[in-house]
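This section describes the prediction task in plain terms. A model, or a person checking by hand, is given the sequence of a single protein chain and must write out its three-dimensional structure as a string of tokens. No templates, partner chains or ligands are provided. The sample shown here is typical of the held-out split.
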Amino acid sequence: MSRGAVYSASLMSDGSPAPRQPAPDGDTSAGKLRRPRSGLPWEPVVEDTIRRAQSEGQFDKLEGAGKPIADFYAPYDPMWWVKKLLRRERVDALPESLAIRGRIERELDRLAALPSEAAVRARVAELNAEIARLNRSAVAGPPTTLAPLDPDAEVARWRARRRA
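The expected answer:
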């Protein structure tokens, strides 16, 4: 049997796909591809599966539909997948001795939202404890040079922000 005969056997006279034959195990789900006979190309099977999925609406409302592809115009980076994984999992790739600087800055910005002077002093004491722990035990990365925060200076800064 020629390839043309096989193609025509899988199409109706109007060119539309023939009704789907059940798979040998009885499964007729749209997500399962039936393997073509040996020596025949996959293209008609794949195209038929895509066409069927489109008519059933399986491609409607996909995540990212209508949005540009992220980083499409970015230069090629062989480590793109590692960077994407780190961003998605929110993993800090910095040694703790460097990462603490960013954490301290973020926490100092959040002090303004605290309700009382006592809460500010308590949070500054927690940050100082973290700085002291890291200054004692940093094993990876450069040594830390962070000095403990001055609670009185942070309270004064908190008061100034509250007035503004």
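For orientation: The chain has a mean pLDDT of 79.
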